[in-house]
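User: Let's play a game. I give you a shape written as C-alpha cells, and you guess the letters that built it. Ready? Here's round one.
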C-alpha cells in the first residue's frame, strides 16, 4: 500500500471501529486524493469521524479547508447512506434466488428463528452483488464488520455455515471476511464462518479503489458516444466478474449474461 491508502484505511478504521493507529503526514495533494477516494466509495461519514478521532494526532496535517468541505456536506452524506432493499439482496441466477427465498421463508417459520442470522446473510449477499457489479463496496464491507461486532453474538453461525454452502457463496463470504482482517484490523475469531483467510483480499480491495478513481478521472468530462460507453461498461463488467470467477463460478457467469442481456435491451429501446 502507498501512503494515501495506508492513511485512508487508518482513518476508516478509526471512524468505523475506533482504531488508534497513528497517521503519517502527507502533502495537501495526497490528502485531496484520500478524501476523493473516500467520497467515491460513499464513506464520507466514516472518514470525517476518523479525522475527528485523530484530530490530536501529532502527524495529522490534513488541510482545514478539506475538513470544512466534508463537514459542510455531512448531512447529505448521511442521507445518501444506503439502506438494503429487496433488489440488493438477490442473485443473477434464478435458481439461486428461488433457493434464497425458500431458505429465508423456512427460517422465518422456524421455532428458533434467527433474524440476526438472516440479516447477516443478506449483508453478505448485498456485498457480493456490489463486488460483481461495481468497484464501490467498502461501505458494505464496513457494514458487515459493524454488524459482526455489534450483533455477532446473536447470530447462529451453524446456520450461516449451512446457508453459505447451500447457496454456493462461501468463498465470496470468506473474501469479504478476509478484507475485514487484512484492511480493517479484525481477528479471525470475530468472523466465525471464516475457514481460511484469503491473502489476496487486500490487493483486490485496493485495486478496486484505484480502478474506480481512474474511471472517474477519465470520464468526468467525457462526451463519449453512448454505444462506446455501453461497450466499455460491458467490457468492464466482464473483466470484473472474471476476477471473481473462482469465488463464485455460477453467479459470476449468470451475472455477465444478465448484464449483457440488459445492455442489448437498452440498445433495442
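Assistant: Ready! My guess for every position:
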Amino acid at each position: 500500500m502507498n501512503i494515501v491508502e495506508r492513511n485512508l484505511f487508518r482513518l476508516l478504521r478509526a471512524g468505523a471501529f475506533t482504531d488508534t493507529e497513528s497517521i503519517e503526514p502527507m502533502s495537501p495533494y495526497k490528502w485531496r486524493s484520500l478524501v476523493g477516494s473516500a467520497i467515491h466509495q460513499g464513506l464520507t461519514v466514516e472518514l470525517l469521524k476518523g479525522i475527528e478521532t485523530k484530530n490530536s494526532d501529532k502527524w495529522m496535517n490534513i488541510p482545514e479547508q478539506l475538513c470544512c468541505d466534508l463537514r459542510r456536506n455531512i448531512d447529505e452524506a448521511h442521507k445518501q447512506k444506503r439502506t438494503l432493499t429487496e433488489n440488493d439482496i438477490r442473485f443473477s441466477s434464478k435458481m439461486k434466488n428461488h433457493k434464497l427465498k425458500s431458505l429465508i421463508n423456512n427460517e422465518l417459520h422456524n421455532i428458533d428463528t434467527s433474524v440476526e442470522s438472516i440479516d447477516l446473510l443478506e449483508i453478505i449477499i448485498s456485498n457480493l452483488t456490489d463486488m460483481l457489479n461495481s468497484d464501490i463496496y467498502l461501505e458494505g464491507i464496513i457494514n458487515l464488520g459493524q454488524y459482526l461486532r455489534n450483533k455477532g453474538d446473536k447470530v447462529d453461525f451453524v446456520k450461516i455455515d449451512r446457508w453459505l454452502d447451500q447457496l454456493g457463496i462461501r468463498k465470496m463470504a470468506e473474501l469479504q471476511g478476509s478484507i475485514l482482517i487484512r484492511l480493517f484490523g479484525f481477528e479471525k475469531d470475530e468472523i466465525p464462518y471464516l475457514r481460511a483467510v484469503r491473502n489476496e483480499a487486500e490487493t483486490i480491495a485496493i485495486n478496486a479503489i484505484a480502478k474506480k478513481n481512474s474511471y472517474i478521472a477519465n470520464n468526468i468530462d467525457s462526451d463519449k458516444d453512448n454505444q462506446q460507453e455501453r461497450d466499455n461498461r460491458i467490457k468492464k463488467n466482464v473483466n470484473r466478474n472474471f476476477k471473481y470467477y473462482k469465488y463464485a463460478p455460477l453467479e459470476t457467469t449468470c451475472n455477465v449474461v444478465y448484464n449483457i442481456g440488459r445492455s442489448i435491451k437498452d440498445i433495442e429501446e
